[in-house]
Here is the input.
Amino acid sequence: MTKLSKDNQTDLAKKRFRLILKDGVNIGVDKMRVELPQWFDEKLFLRGQKCFNTNFYSIFLAGFIGLVAVLSIPTILDVLILTNKSSNPYAAYKRYTETIKHVLKWYHYDIHNIKSKSRKSLSIVSGFHCAAAKTSFNAGLGIRVNQKDMVLTQFGFIGLVLLKYKNLAIQISEDDEMALVHFWRTIGYLLGIKDEFNLCNGSLEEVRSLCAEIMSEVYVPSLENPPPEFNNMVGYLIEGLKPISPLNDFESFMKFMWRVCDLPERKLTNTRSQITYNTQTFIITVLLTKWWLVWFFRPVMNFQIKMAIWLNESFPLFAAFKFGTKVFCMNSISNVINKKDN
Here is the structure.
């Protein structure tokens, strides 16, 4: 295959970007697909899963930032507000801890077996998308959860990994990047994204160029001039995930996010936020970057976030302290579902 020049890659990215924005807005997502696509490469997919687990902390952080960025897209935010599933800290806790569980299942379990936890999770998420699309249409919002919105959401999981891996201290080779791109192309396909719109369809550099186009033309303007409800929804998300990331607060997280995304610097108004921001920056720029430290601290940080997620799922004491004993009911239902999956 002839390798495209940088200019040609940029031109192709612009062309695909226009296609996504113009045509993708009028096409809904396909129903959950059962069969894997002909282009599926198991070796690449498994390497993508392995790369995630090697960089668990940093890629998890990239996804967290991506999740916040997605809230700046008005058409997506409208659906989230309409469905009322993240309109307060507890609702956000329920929604986003479930999101984390789903994504981790995709990264950890067999994609071939239609009865695996990964496939059952994809089926559940696909059902959520269909229900949200129907609710939005009935509410007069038109075609929502469309191909464009799905691609912009797909960006939230992979875009920053490809564009800002240095800012996030992600240790990754080109082969690893290709594997992660293939992983998310497959997940997108199974969730109903058509190949012509799929963000991860194409060579590594074509996908990176498209991500750069989406970042500069969609996310940067949206983050600099977000919808009116953006700050509230981000605040609910951050408060909702305090049981997993207790030190995060709105100001420090947004300043760190702006730094990662190379946006104009945000000011902090209190000492606590400054300490939290300095700590997160130190972790990324020193502990996970300096070669004489990273060999020790990358596994430590990976373990720390894995343990926080596991504790919240198995013994949600911090969540119960914050939101009340109703979280035990929520986790009991989730555990029953997980047992059925087994």
